[in-house]
Write a structure and sequence with these properties.
- This protein has 8 helices and 15 strands.
- The protein has 280 residues and is an alpha+beta fold.
- Helix 7 crosses helix 8.
Length: 280
């Protein structure tokens, strides 16, 4: 999407990616939001190959590729809902009732075909290929006369950034990797042997015989990135290959981590300050 968006004047068009905004007791997400003094535009980007059939009867997206059909949730329903939620957010937070909110489903692959069910329905105002995006934006721009002040626009951008809440997502689920495929244990900082052995409050490599008291920190950092920041005593033992729950508890206490719950139900939060580098 960078290529078509580069055609936009950065002084007039403000582009925000991956927004996650509050909506009462839940959140709604927007792939890309373009904000100007005349309008707000939501872009729901789909990188899907094959022939896409937008079924407006049953509100679903059918992809046909290599003779096989696959059904996806309808992105039109999604962007219409996002537009409604964004209007509510703008009215509640910035009090701009006259700012139009538009939305497009953008097909990023130029070789993907687009069809509609039934065929006589025109979806060209909602579903577009990425290369036509600058033209569509220009058409919207010319169709609107009024605009909000530059001060109000900048206030809206500040609030959007302030209220944006990133969602913790699992790397494993994102890339469809099974947890059983992860190599657990503590790597040797000298020869990269895995796993190190825990002996007398230190880590020892059976290959190069090096010892280290801090080698587990890199492993715990990897664990937080792969499996999440919350960990129990049992999960720590499994990941670091520590047989003793007492040894694991002592190690967790030495890290002085924030925790919730008591005894067997206690969960620790793995925190690694950005200013503290993790040694490889």
């Amino acid at each position: 999407m960078d290529f078509p968006l580069d055609f936009l004047d950065s002084k007039e068009y403000f582009i925000l990616h991956d927004l996650r905004l509050p909506d009462n007791d839940r959140f709604f997400q927007i792939d890309t939001l373009i904000l100007t003094k005349k309008f707000a535009l939501i872009l729901e980007v789909k990188n899907i190959t094959g022939i896409l059939h937008f079924d407006t009867v049953y509100n679903q997206l059918i992809r046909i590729k290599n003779g096989k059909e696959q059904v996806f949730p309808c992105p039109l329903i999604q962007v219409n809902r996002q537009a409604s939620q964004l209007r509510s957010w703008i009215n509640a937070n910035v009090s701009i009732e006259n700012l139009p909110v538009y939305s497009f489903v953008v097909i990023s692959n130029p070789h993907t075909g687009i069809k509609v069910i039934p065929p006589y329905i025109d979806l060209s105002r909602k579903v577009i290929h990425r290369n036509t995006l600058p033209i569509k934006i220009e058409q919207i721009e010319k169709s609107i006369n009024g605009e909000i002040s530059n001060k109000l626009l900048k206030k809206s951008i500040r609030l959007l950034k302030k209220q944006n809440r990133e969602q913790e997502s699992s790397i494993l689920s994102r890339f469809q990797i099974s947890q059983s495929e992860i190599l657990t244990g503590v790597f040797c900082p000298a020869c990269s042997y895995l796993p190190l052995q825990r002996v007398s409050r230190t880590w020892r490599c059976p290959i190069c015989q090096i010892t280290s008291k801090e080698a587990h920190m890199k492993a715990l950092h990897d664990c937080s990135l792969l499996l999440g920041t919350a960990i129990t005593n049992r999960e720590l033992r499994n990941f670091l290959h520590i047989p003793s729950s007492y040894t694991a508890a002592r190690l967790l206490q030495s890290l002085n981590l924030p925790h919730t719950g008591a005894q067997k139900n206690r969960r620790y939060t793995l925190i690694f300050p950005k200013e503290t580098p993790i040694q490889k």
